[in-house]
Amino acid sequence: MKIKDIVNRDLVTLTNCEHEPIHIPGKIQPHGFLIGITSEGKIDFCTANISWYVSVNHTEALGKKITDVFGANAEKQIFEYINKDENQDVFPLEIDLLGKFFQISIHKSFDIYVLEAEFQFAGKEKLADVYTQTIQFVTQMNNTTSLKDLCALVAEGTRKITGYDRVMIYRFDEQYNGEVYAENCREDLETFLGLHYPHTDIPAQARELYMRNQLRLIVDVDYMPVPIYTIDDQENKTLDLSLSILRSSSPIHVEYLKNIGVGATLTISLIHNERLWGLIACHHYSSKNISPEMRLAAKLQGQFITSQIDIRQSNDENVNAQQTVLALEQLSGMQFPLLQESIQTIVDAPQLLSICNATGVSVVAKGKIYKNGLVPTDEQIENLIIQFDDKISDKLFTTNKLSDHFNGIGKCSSFAGIIYHPLGNSDYIIWYRPETISEINWAGNPEKAIIKDSTGLHPRNSFEIWKQIIKNQSSLWKQYEINGAVQYAHTLHNQLMMITLSEEEEKYRSQSEILKETNSELENLNWISTHDLQEPLRKIQLFISKMLTEPHVVEMDSIFNSLLRVSKSADRMRTLLDDILKFSRIKYTRENLEKIDLNQTINTVLTEMEETISEYNAIIEYERLPEVHAVNFLMQQLFSNIMQNSLKFASPKRTPHIKITASKEPELVTHSHKIYCHWICFSDNGIGFEQQYAQTIFKVFGRLHNQEEYKGSGVGLALCKKIMQTVGGTIYATGKPGEGTDIKIYFPCDPLDTLL
User: Fold this and answer.
1) Which of 291, 320, 329, 544 has its CA 20 to 30 A from that of 36?
2) 225-235 pLDDT, tens per residue?
3) What sequence ranges are listed for the domain Phytochrome chromophore attachment site (predicted)?
């Protein structure tokens, strides 16, 4: 029978070190021996150090049955243990082998049962002691609320149970870089708390083994590896030691431990959501081994952490999450007018930032950008949306480092992190977080994890603090913050849809009113053309006919009076035609609106009306007037018509007095169901009118008095109404018979919002 060792002698290079076959080293640590048996009980693998523990060497054991080497009773105990359904991973088999007592851990590697034997520990800790310590720990654990506090408690409890010099809770990030999240160590040792370690310190294949085997021991880093031998009956014969306790470590890892001065280690995997969340790493600065009971107790500590991760993280985030929920409820419960200008009111609400703890937010709606807080410029926002439309389309997108996803953007202190949510119809909402410059303390330069020299590969030997400055990224968005943002984005989408529908409804309603008024105007024009214009024409025709048919009868005085009457009739016709022309030229368009100072307008009008004002000996008072969006010549005509109307209907009992006041306070006008931001009031002390005629006086050719009593075409106030409709405003009159009239004109907050 030919025997060979299965030591893996493949060279590890810089190109394959991340694929080092550490699960099949073909060697073990010497604090125990290993045999591999078939299901028939034949010893197919055996370590060279078996003779250190029992009076048999590996050459004598290989190829023989368990019964032939250790006796029938030992074989019976071993297979009874193997055939048990439970507790194999918890309690090792205690057995007498050739007069010596061992504790044997057994697992199956493909078709081989791997038996790892260690001397039974003298004075071993009893399970009752472990139970007592565990109960005490659970009691203390219930007094902690945060995950960090729990990990600190586990580090302290594990060190008390195991006696290691240093116990660290090591937490991985998304890239498997590690951080010492909690620590408990001897007072004379330098702390590692808060230090970061690159992912290369624990390569991928090592992390995979930690997932499969949750407890790993190195008793003495200065150990001499013991080779495993087998019967040479097939090519490339080996033994998978992934689940082994005695498995020999990678020489690179052993050298790494020596470089940091560690003499022995115990490592316990922390697995959460089927991912390696972290490790409990126990370091001792001399050789150290612990009993299976102690290993079990330490393993339980790890399970306490993993069972509490979700709960403790939820507790850590609960307060902030409640604030997010409260902000979401408050904002969703607010009632906003179904107007375009309400979007800025929404954006200005502090709850919109609180929903996801952002420092800025922008809403793009109907081609306009609304902003609040620390936000990019309009140009940067437009550039963001263009790039998102090209790459992200209509999907939610979140990042705390925008520069990783888009070239040329994100390297700005005001928006390193964003939550981007399209709302449809080319509308968007984007939350922003600024750059958070952070400093990470690495235990050595992470770029120099593996070093190559003339003798081969070596782990880094420098662990001096190496500081890394992180830029161009914000703090991470929590899931509850993202959920809150998504939830409100849907609410905002519905609000924008309702605004659009409301504006469409208002548009059609306004158009209907305009059409109705236009038809009424046409009827009045038709009536005036058949009545008011025909009356002076009949008089002219009558006078001319009389003069032509009876020239010798008509006296000169009569001819003069007739011609005077003809002139007056013609003048009235001209006035009517001029007013009709003015009225027809005012269109329902606001394309030429501009910001004008009404103080200049009133001064111009008063100058033009100077003679008329003097004729009536009128008193005109006015206060400071606002700037509005309007058409200058129309405002002059508006002011002139209103003041001429006041003078025309002045009371003969008192001196005409016109007072002009103004306000910038927003006001809801009930008859138009709109909010206006500026109003100007012309108050006179004239004859006034009955309030029931408040609408009639603004109708074209609408008159409350006959032509003989008060001359005029009846177009003046109708022109005023049409002018205010043109600039998106409205006009209203309040009269008191015998006391006077107030005519109030209202200007919109944003004239562009009132375009039809």
Assistant:
1) 291
2) 999 999 988 88
3) 146-303
